[in-house]
Amino acid sequence: MKKLLSVVLAAIMTVSVFALSVVPAMAADTVNSPTATTAVDNAPTLMVNGVVTVTDITYTVSGTSVQSVTFRYVGEGTLIGWEHNLQKLGLTESTDYTVVNNADGSLTINFISAAANEDWDNGEVTVNALVDFGDGTTAVQVDTTKANDSSKAPATGISTTLVAGSVAVACAGIAVLAATKKRSAK
């Protein structure tokens, strides 16, 4: 009986230790899941007084080979003017793009060259509305949520509870063996 109990406990402990060493190895280091590309992913960066906004500026796109994009400020405060980063992207006005300040305060950018269209399509364009809020503040509502674009899986490893559990099983096995040995000695 003692030998059978010893073999069963030894088998259980062996399986437990093997499972503890194999289970963490099953998690992958990186996750390469396919991602969908939508127009939202390649949207321009819209800013009010240098602060990113998702609600205070709207834009409409028209045209195919020459894309014409009209930006409108719809937030609070008085629109003073517009800024963009097209020259910083290496584009030349009149050759790559044209800018029209419309009478209604909106801004229209015509992307003429292939390089300008590519910068637009890749979401590299930044448009900044310069706004006077009248009270000396430049506060705007900012969407600070950031999508999780990480391709790494969470860190894995042997958790302390699994280690503690295996130690407890081993100690219980030793205690049972000691008790059966003591009982058989009497």
Question: How would you describe this structure in keywords?
Answer:
186 residues; four-stranded mixed β-sheet; alpha+beta; four-stranded antiparallel β-sheet
As a percent range, the share of strand residues is 15-25%
Radius of gyration: 33 Å
Q: Looking at the structure, what is the overall shape?
A: rod-shaped
Helix content: 25-40%
| Strand runs, count | 8
The secondary structure category is alpha+beta
Largest sheet: 4 strands, mixed
| Helical run tally | 3
* Distance from first to last alpha carbon: 16 Å
Secondary-structure element order, N to C: HEEEEEEEHEH
The largest sheet has its strands arranged as 2-1-8-5
The low-confidence parts are 36-40, 138-145
Chain-averaged pLDDT: 76
Oligomer: single chain
Can you describe this structure?
The protein is α+β, with helices and mostly antiparallel strands. It is 30% helix and 23% strand. It contains three helices and eight strands, in the order αβββββββαβα. It has helices at residues 2-22, 114-121, 160-185; strands spanning 45-48, 51-52, 57-62, 67-73, 78-84, 97-101, 107-111, 126-132. The strands form two sheets. A four-stranded mixed β-sheet has the order 2-1-8-5, with no helix packed on it. Strands 3-4-7-6 form a four-stranded antiparallel β-sheet. Helix 1 (2-22) packs antiparallel against helix 3 (160-185). It is rod-shaped.
